[in-house]
Every structure is written in structure tokens, then in C-alpha cells.
Amino acid sequence: MDTENLPQIKRSSIAVARILEKMGDDLSLRVIGGYQGIGRVVYTADINRPGLALAGYLDYFASDRVQILGNTEIHYMERLTASELQRRLERMFSFEIPAFMLSRELRPRPVLLDMCNRRGVPVLQSTRSTDEVISRVILFLAEEFSPETMIHGTAIDCYGVGCLILGMPGIGKSETALELVERGHRLVADDVVMLQRRREDTLYATATEVVEHHMEIRGVGIIDIKSVFGVGRVRHSKQIGLVVELEEWDAGKEYDRTGLTDECVSILGIRIPRLVIPVRPGRNIAVILEVAALNHRLKELGVHPAQRLNERLINVMGRH
Hints:
CATH architecture of the largest domain: 3-Layer(aba) Sandwich
Oligomer: single chain
CATH superfamily of the largest domain: P-loop containing nucleotide triphosphate hydrolases
Number of helices: 10
Strand content: 25-35%
Number of domains: 2
Largest sheet: 5 strands, mixed
CATH class of the largest domain: Alpha Beta
Helix content: 25-40%
């Protein structure tokens, strides 16, 4: 399966309203000013603390970012006279600012709220500490702006290894995943898998909201894994560590029988280890995938069984 040319989806912007919707509960957010500007757009995953801008230095003011106001900024503004603060804020507001976010339930000077209300710049207030607000907003925005794609396959958490099962329709991806779930592993997504690149070097799989935790089994129909097996057999997302491609057994094809060569596949620019497993009657693919996942974990710990055996054979042959 060609995974290098999958169509990429990447958000170029998000509205402040989405931050409020998705992070409102996590950060205990509420809007205390600039209500009419909740549709303002954020174009970058970075945030900014506008201390230098409040001090009057605007040469490198990152105005296009969410502006975080903590104890330092609020206390600094309190030391300024009302006229001086207004003058500095007017210079700041000559730039397009998407939103202000305050930590620790801090409340800014009325002049800032008045200017935000007049210009429609939302002011969000959180009960969390400044460090928590910054770290959680950065992670959320990084995820929102991460490139993603959609692929036909099945994603499952097998012994802690995120496995992406690929193959032609009818090859047995869902049946394999169903047996793995029955054996205690956890389903992430079936049929339609959303893949997202995070932090430049990790690939995460999630299900679409419509078909989340549902699976199609030919002859049975649609089943809800969470309802049938319980919430302990599903998960919302999982980092993908192994791609397993199922294909019909081809007697004329040479399959890897030693495991000495590690093959990889590129998805969204991230290289993921890949195995090709031939399917034919009598082969228990679920058990093979379990062993593949455990073997992958050994390799991550620095233990390569195939290489160890190869070195042992070379040493034995060298003694004779």
C-alpha cells in the first residue's frame, strides 16, 4: 500500500471559540471580555507573554499569537498610571491580537477590558497556574495544527504497541482486530483511521467521531466494541509504533524468514517499522501480530533476537 502519497490535511487557522470549546473544562475557562470577538482566528501554534510589549518594546511583538497574562504582566500593569497604561495598550492594539488568556483567575485593569470590549478581542480567564495554562495551550494548539491524513485500515493497542493493520478489503483486518480485542487488547479505530503527526517525530491514530469504537464484521454487521466488550477494550488514540500489512499468500514470493532486515514505511514524513504478513488458511494472524508486537518491544529495549541468533551462528561456525 502506498503510504507516502496519502493526502494531507492541515489546519491553517482555528477560531478562539474552538479553544474555548475544547479547553473550556480542562482550564476552567470563561470569557470576561471581548465576547463579540470569539470568532477571531489564531494562525499559529505558538503563544506569547507580552511583557516587553507592555513595556513599550514592539519591534518583535508576536501579535498573531494567543497572549498569556500571568502574575508578572498583571502586577506590572498595576504599577503603571491609567494614562500610561492606556497609551501602551493603544500601541499594542495597533496590531491584530487574537485573544488574551489570564491564569490564576487574575483580573486585568479595567482599561484593558474596556479596550478589548471596544475592539472585540476576547479575554479568557482560567483558574489554572500560568505554567499549566502555557503547557496545555501549547500542546492543544500543536495538535490542532498538526498535519493529518486518513487511511483505510485498523489501529489497535497490542501489548502497549500501537499497531496499524493495512491490507486489501476483505483480507481480514477487522477479524484480526476482533480476535485481539477478545484476547484483551484495545481497539483504537477500524475501517477509517485518522493519522496525525505530532511533535515532528510521532504518529498517532484516532477514530473519526462518527464511527468511533464501531467495527464491521462481514456476516454479522456493525458492532459496538465498547458496549460488547467494555470500556477497557477501547482507547481514543494511540501512538503508532508498527505497521502490519496483510496480503494473500503468494507461493512465488519470497517472504522475510529471518527478521534481520528492518523495513520501514513513511507516513506523513515519519518512518515506521513495517512487516508484511502473508495470509492463508490455518495461520492465526492475531497470535502472529501479538508476537510481532512483543518482538517490536524487545527491539525498542535494545534486544534484537534475530541479530543475536545470527551472531551466535557466526561464532559457532567460526570455531569449526
